Amino acid sequence: MSSLRRVRPLAALALAASAVGTLLVTAPTASAGDYADACIRSVGARTSPNGAWTIPARNFRYGSSGVCVSEIQHDVASTIGIDPADWPGFIDGVWGPKTDRYVREFQRRSNLDPDGVVGPRTWEALISRTTD
């Protein structure tokens, strides 16, 4: 008789799901600074229109993805008042319909053209409102 214990497939699946659930619940929430530096490293930098800020060298819009989109999502979420409990499902680095809607809302509130493109003026507005 083998000393290995046989595990039933459903029991093993339940155990794995429990472990993953624990990881998801206890994973720390990223802060804006976690994404900002990585964003600049990934796309380069330029100076904002007012000359006060270093901003990413690219514009972003619907369909964009990556660490810079995570930065945009984090900044928009903290600026327009999205409940932090909803951030894990929103801050995912993929610019879809929800990100587009929130970026346009941020642009309206900031008296910018609500075109859904995060270019120099929108970057400047985001950074000025999220930097201490």
Features:
single chain; Muramoyl-pentapeptide Carboxypeptidase, domain 1; 2 strands; mainly alpha; disordered N terminus; two-stranded antiparallel ribbon; 132 residues
- Report the helical percentage: 40-55%
Structural class: mainly alpha
- Portion in beta strands: under 5%
Question: CATH homologous superfamily?
Answer: PGBD-like superfamily/PGBD
CATH class: Mainly Alpha
List the total number of helices: 6
Mean pLDDT: 80
- The strands making up the biggest β-sheet line up spatially as 1-2
Which fold name is given in CATH as the topology? Muramoyl-pentapeptide Carboxypeptidase, domain 1
Number of strands: 2
- Unreliable segments of 5+ consecutive residues: 1-32
The rough form would be described as globular
Provide a quick synopsis of the model.
The protein is mainly alpha-helical. It contains six helices and two strands. It is globular, with a radius of gyration of 20 Å.
Structural overview:
It is a single chain. The protein has 132 residues and is mainly α. The chain has one domain (30-130): Muramoyl-pentapeptide Carboxypeptidase, domain 1. It is built from six helices and two strands, in the order ααββαααα. The protein has helices at 9-26, 32-43, 67-80, 87-90, 97-109, 120-130; strands at 45-47, 54-56. Strands 1-2 form a two-stranded antiparallel ribbon. Strand 1 (45-47) and strand 2 (54-56) form a beta hairpin. It is globular, with a radius of gyration of 20 Å.
